[in-house]
Write a structure and sequence with these properties.
Elements lengths: L2 H27 L6 H40 L2 H27 L6 H25 L5 H20 L4 H27 L2
Helix pairs in contact: 1-2, 1-6, 2-5, 2-6, 3-4, 3-5, 4-5, 5-6
């Protein structure tokens, strides 16, 4: 991986974060647009918002790459490190349900709303991990699933604490778009080296 490829990864991820935030933001807040000026202000704001979550996503990705290397070094076995990641993944999925339920159960949301988020994130992570596995090898499934579910959840924590549905959507879409892009493009960038 040379600097040119890293710059490509950085700016494409930044663009994906910005565009995805604009797309979901316009979809969710279309009725708030009153004039052409407010439309362009909203576009600029959403683009900046997406850029911020893109940067958070990139920091999380490079932090995970570092932790993954440490995990492989500490556990000396891909299989053992995979089981540790699965255990952490199960803990995070449970906590994504349980801690949100404890914090926001009095807001009138049904139990389904609390179950849906971790299950949907897990299913999405499994789809991305399957694609990654098909493009690389079987050993890539668990790390890709771990990254999509666990690291995305960690990056999402500041917004999860607010409990506002609009903010949850405005932040998760750029995070998932950026994290998916990074996990699926890195092996292609490295292969070109």
């Amino acid at each position: 991986m040379n600097i040119r490829k890293w710059v490509y990864l950085f700016f494409t991820t930044l663009l994906i974060g910005g565009v995805s935030a604009v797309a979901i933001g316009l979809l969710l807040r279309w009725e708030d647009i009153e004039s052409m000026a407010s439309f362009f202000v909203m576009i600029a704001w959403l683009l900046g918002f997406g850029f911020i979550f893109s940067i958070i996503s990139q920091m999380g990705y490079f932090a995970y790459l570092t932790i993954h290397r440490f995990g492989l070094g500490i556990f000396k076995s891909v299989r053992l490190w995979s089981w540790v990641q699965i255990l952490i993944l199960a803990f995070v999925v449970f906590d994504l349900f349980y801690l949100r339920y404890i914090a926001f159960k009095d807001t009138g949301l049904t139990l389904f709303n609390f179950i849906f988020v971790p299950v949907a994130l897990l299913v999405y992570g499994m789809i991305v991990a399957y694609i990654k596995m098909k493009e690389t090898n079987k050993a890539a499934f668990v790390p890709a699933l771990f990254f999509i579910v666990v690291v995305t959840t960690i990056e999402w924590i500041p917004v999860l604490k607010q409990g506002d549905i609009l903010w949850l959507w405005l932040s998760i879409v750029p995070l998932l778009a950026c994290n998916t892009w990074q996990i699926l493009i890195l092996h292609r960038l490295i292969k070109r080296s």
